[in-house]
């Protein structure tokens, strides 16, 4: 594990120089993006003007997410944003979020030690052979932990220890993201999704990204680089702070 930790920190230090521009969309029902209108910047995202905490790739996605999740959570997100900005003087912007997402995505590219760890075949005690149990574990990356930045937790344990720290207004979004993770059906290990929790610090604020990742597919994703097709897709993410 120590060797993996050293390799990971070295890898992330290189990734820190990457351009983090993503077209992000917080609509969990996001599908193939609508082509931009004439004269519209294809990199433009629609940020919620009330809470400044979620972004969308189109008016359609914004409407869908408002009806399914954001209408119930927007006030809570707005209050949290105001407390951080006007009490602590901190504003965790979408630019910082995009950069942290790019770092996490890069951690799963190519020969990353995190990717290798995620694809380890775990013996299944309820069968006679080793099977991939990836949908039952969560990988955590704490970039502030120099000694041991990687940890692996069974999904039920992760939910039990994390849910109390999720604000009530984000509980539904958290459960939906976990549900999307467990709902993926594939018999091919390299196409199986990975759920990762990345921890960063912004000032004295601990910012956690719960991100659903998988090897690139033909289908559209909710977070995509616009210059090159990513090797790893970010299918959904949630930001929460401690």
Automatic annotation (TrEMBL):
Residues 1-17 form the signal peptide. The keyword DNA-binding does not apply. It holds the Pfam family zf-MYND. Keywords: Metal-binding, Signal, Zinc, Zinc-finger. InterPro entries: Znf_MYND. Residues 25-74 form the MYND-type domain. One of its GO terms (molecular function) is zinc ion binding. This is MYND-type domain-containing protein.
């Amino acid at each position: 594990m120590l060797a993996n930790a050293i390799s990971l920190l070295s890898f992330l230090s290189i990734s820190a120089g990457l351009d983090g521009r993503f077209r992000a969309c917080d609509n969990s029902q996001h599908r193939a993006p609508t082509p931009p209108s004439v004269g519209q910047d294809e990199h433009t995202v629609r940020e919620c003007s009330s809470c400044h905490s979620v972004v969308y790739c189109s008016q359609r996605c914004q409407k869908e997410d408002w009806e399914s999740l954001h209408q119930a959570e927007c006030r809570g997100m707005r209050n949290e944003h105001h407390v951080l900005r006007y009490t602590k003087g901190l504003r965790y912007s979408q630019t910082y979020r995009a950069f942290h997402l790019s770092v996490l995505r890069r951690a799963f590219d190519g020969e990353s030690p995190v990717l290798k760890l995620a694809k380890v075949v775990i013996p299944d005690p309820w069968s006679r052979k080793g099977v991939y149990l990836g949908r039952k574990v969560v990988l955590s990356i704490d970039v502030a932990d120099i000694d041991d930045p990687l940890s692996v937790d069974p999904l039920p344990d992760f939910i039990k220890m994390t849910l109390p720290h999720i604000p009530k207004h984000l509980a539904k979004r958290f459960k939906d993201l976990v549900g999307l993770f467990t709902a993926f059906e594939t018999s091919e290990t390299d196409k199986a999704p990975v759920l990762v929790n990345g921890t960063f610090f912004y000032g004295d604020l601990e910012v956690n990204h719960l991100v659903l990742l998988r090897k690139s597919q033909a289908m559209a994703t909710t977070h995509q680089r616009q210059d090159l097709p990513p090797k790893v897709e970010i299918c959904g993410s949630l930001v929460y702070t401690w």
